[in-house]
Amino acid sequence: MPDDSAHAIESGELATADEAHVYPIVGGIPRFVPRSNYASSFGLQWNRFRATQLDSHSGLRISHDRFYKFTGWKPEQLAGKRVLDVGCGAGRFTEIALDAGASVVAIDYSSAVDACRANHDSERLDVVQADIYALPFEPATFDFVYCLGVLQHTPDVHRAFAALPAQLRSGGRLAVDLYARLWRNLLWSKYWLRPLTKRMNAQTLFRAVERAVPVLLPLSRAITAIPALGPKLRYAVPVVNYEGTYPLSKSQLREWAVLDTFDMLAPAHDHPQTLTTLREWFNEADLQEISVERIGFIVGRGTRR
């Protein structure tokens, strides 16, 4: 897996042994998926906001803290290990794994892989554009596999999850997170608008979000300030507001608001799950040391026997 030769090939082709299938290498990235697919909106957002959520860019530890809190792993456990980042986006968590000394294969279904590769110049990183339902790796290849902020955006969440455990070596560890399926999601403006916004042209929607955020952010702040009910009522305003959640500057708050408001409205798929369902999936995969809990997201961890 990551080796010096992989980083020397900027363009070319990969062919199966029988030459029945040929896949292009473009910009140093093997491409196993069609150029246009259901994740195209993610390619747009991560190439436009390539550095926004990188800790090295923000000067904060937002991605670092979420990664280690959700996975339950420690940096020293990752050092020298092979790690698979499924749904890497621009590589916010790829950066954390690389910083720990891991050799990382980062995959994404969208053109976000271009942003990830541009962000991280490391001989311990390979970036691949691939489909979670048809991962182009031999089984039992990785010591650690994580999939954060991704599974709910696939067409068949169960099937997407089921593709991950087979990538683990014996004793390998898996960590995933998912949006929580809650009754109060019915009150969230995101789910009122998505039947329309997910069908919009991504560029058109992005421009609409850019225009709306400067108006909606102050409204969200005002509603949040209402005693007791404000923090819940603000979800009726279709904007992501991290004020009071992360120590971002005013310009960062606006930038993150545009990014994540688009992120919540644009995806073709958004399928929250329950704790019970995720626990069942870990059990079906015959993993051990299973832990499933709610930390805002639903977070699951397990180890291959």
Task: Explain what the structure shows.
By secondary structure, this protein is an alpha/beta fold. Helices cover 36% and strands 20% of the residues. The protein has twelve helices and ten strands. The strands form two sheets. It has a seven-stranded mixed beta sheet. Helix 9 crosses helix 11. It is globular, with a radius of gyration of 19 Å. The N terminus is likely disordered.
Q: Quick one: overall form?
A: globular
Strand order of the largest sheet: 6-5-4-7-8-10-9
**Overall mean pLDDT:** 94
Give the helix level as a range of percent. 25-40%
**Element pattern in H and E:** EEEHHHHEHEHEEHEHHHHHEE
> What would you report as the Rg, rounded to the nearest angstrom?
19 Å
Sheet with the most strands? 7 strands, mixed
Ends apart, CA distance between termini: 23 Å
Number of helices in the DSSP assignment: 12
How many E strands? 10
Low-confidence runs (pLDDT<50, min 5 residues)? Answer: 1-6
Structural class comes to: alpha/beta
The fraction of residues assigned to DSSP E strands is 15-25%
